[in-house]
Fold this protein.
Amino acid sequence: MIEMAVLEIRLYGDNVLRECAPPIEKVTDAERQLAQDMLETMYAYRGVGLAAPQVGFSKRIIVIDIEPDDDSHKPTILINPIILSQDGEVVLEEGCLSFPGIREEVKRPAEVVVEGLDETGRIVKIEEEGLMARALQHEIEHLDGILFIDHFSRLKRKLLKNQLNKIKQKEGQNGKGGRGDFK
Ligand code: NI
């Protein structure tokens, strides 16, 4: 059993969130450990998805669990995920752990086919719709430095300006030890 740790969530304003993460060449214990820590962090913060840059690692790893309260439901770990195809269109409300307090409607394709590696390094291909398709697209975008606010209209971003600035300020304080470890 791997020991798991809750990592610090990087907030909007941290440069790592805007980086394009390089692909992982080999899935090793380091990637497996990071994925487990990401899951632990995601559950601790009550999120349904998390990408490695959100915990400070510019690596192409995402974790998702859209049913965190169902112990029989297996979480999804994907390494180097790519979207093979997208179809349809749907508007759904989204949040992001790097943007505490912000929830907004975002229009995205309704269905996706995604390919990636699981934690053993095996290729997996998944077809999803609904909340899972939504989470996959949101998390995969994080790996290219794309954030959900990039989908907002200019007006919406303007309306959220103060809230976004507050999150940035909080992020600035984290680096100086302004926030204690979340454990
Ligand atoms: Ni996010």
